[in-house]
Design goal:
The chain is elongated and about 75 Å long. The chain has 2 domains: 115 residues, Rieske Iron-sulfur Protein, CATH 2.102.10; 203 residues, Naphthalene 1,2-dioxygenase Alpha Subunit, Chain A, domain 1. The strands form 4 sheets. It has a 7-stranded antiparallel beta sheet. Strands 5-6-7-8 form a 4-stranded antiparallel beta sheet, with no helix packed on it. It has 6 helices and 17 strands. It is α+β, with helices and mostly antiparallel strands.
Length: 357
């Protein structure tokens, strides 16, 4: 099941050129996206209301989109404004239009009731396109349900195991650390000290250099991961009493990631790698991204294998551990929102009861 009344990432801004039509499937809905003359985005149902041909095989005409099967032309609103050989346009000649916003180098689409689409509900990415930060981007397709990817990001203790030779740096620091989880509006905040963690090799420090790393992230509905990491000399965590640091770090990075379901069994994962220019150079940025992409390939291999086991043994229950607190809270949050949007309102129920009477 999917939460529809929320914003999903449909792609990076550079995925959508000034000319051309881009196909997407999100929550099982076929969608075509394109830019208007002013650069603004349009998102329409990707099937003509006449012969159900995909509008992504159509043609842009100004800000409008013409179906290239029988020639119906649609405005950005989804309303048909021209039918060849026919003067009268039926009121039913319309395709669905989705609210769409471009923000922080991402194109966001609202999949539910357009009347509820508030821009303020879009989580703000960290340091995207900021002049003081290096930024690299990527995306990864999964043959897996989106909830398994959310679970993976909500419990970073797996870095010491799945990513032993990449992000885990052959250390048990992540696996041994205990996060503090706090409920925030439409999400969770998860914070932890990762003590005596090896520093990245590409920083050029002496082999075996250790740091105390403060890792804090917000995990927002429907699956948006916003992580800021600050590195300090070993021993700072104890000096802070394992509370949030106030001193200036000696290295900082951030990443913003978004989980977008295509269907119940397929997902696309968008991610960034951002390094502060104050502490790093372009080569460091490229080296960090290379490590991140190797690690994400490790995640995909594990999660797709997990999905295969689940598909083959659907009645098997997962054992719950203490480290599952964050992912269980987020699953309950999502489930509650899904139930709430599927439940008819009191006014709808009263109207239905009067109609029956």
């Amino acid at each position: 099941m999917f939460l529809r009344n929320c914003w999903y990432v449909a792609g990076w801004s550079h995925h959508f050129p000034d000319d051309g039509l881009v196909e997407r499937t999100i929550l099982g809905d076929p969608i075509v996206l394109y830019r208007k003359g002013d650069g603004g985005m349009v998102a329409l149902e990707n099937r003509c209301c006449h012969g159900l041909a995909p509008l992504s095989r159509g043609r842009k005409e100004g800000d409008d989109l013409r179906c290239m099967y029988h020639g119906l032309k649609f405005a950005p609103s989804g309303k048909c404004i021209e039918i060849p050989q026919q003067d009268i346009i039926p009121s039913t000649a319309v395709v669905r239009s989705y609210p769409v916003v471009e923000q922080d180098c991402w194109v966001w689409i609202w999949m539910g009731d357009p009347a509820l689409a508030e821009r303020a509900l879009i989580p703000r990415a960290l340091n995207h396109n900021h002049p003081d930060w290096f930024m690299l981007t990527g995306e990864l397709a999964y043959d897996a349900n989106y909830e398994l990817i959310n679970d993976n990001l909500l419990d970073l203790s797996h870095l010491s195991y799945v990513h032993q030779s990449t992000l885990g740096r052959n250390s048990m620091s992540w696996g041994d650390s205990r996060p503090r989880t706090t409920r925030i509006e439409r999400g969770l905040r998860i914070e932890r000290w990762v003590v005596n963690h090896p520093r990245p090799n590409y920083l050029g420090l002496p082999p075996g250099s250790l740091s105390d790393m403060w890792a804090a992230y917000d995990y927002m509905v429907p699956g948006v991961f916003l992580l800021a990491t600050k590195s300090y000399p070993a021993g700072i965590a104890a000096e802070c009493g394992m509370q949030a640091p106030t001193a200036d770090p000696d290295w900082v990075s951030s990443t913003s990631q978004a989980v977008t379901p295509i269907s119940e069994s397929k997902t696309v994962y968008y991610y960034s790698s951002c390094l502060s220019r104050k502490f790093a150079d372009a080569q460091h940025s490229r080296q960090q991204m290379a490590v991140i992409e190797r690690a994400f390939a490790e995640d995909r291999a594990m999660i797709e294998a997990q999905q295969e086991v689940i598909a083959n043994t659907p009645k098997t229950r997962m054992l719950q551990l203490a480290s599952d607190g964050g992912l269980n809270q987020f699953r309950r949050l999502m489930a509650g929102l899904i139930v709430a949007e599927q439940r008819p309102s009191l006014a709808d129920r009263e109207e239905a009861s009067h109609a029956v009477a």
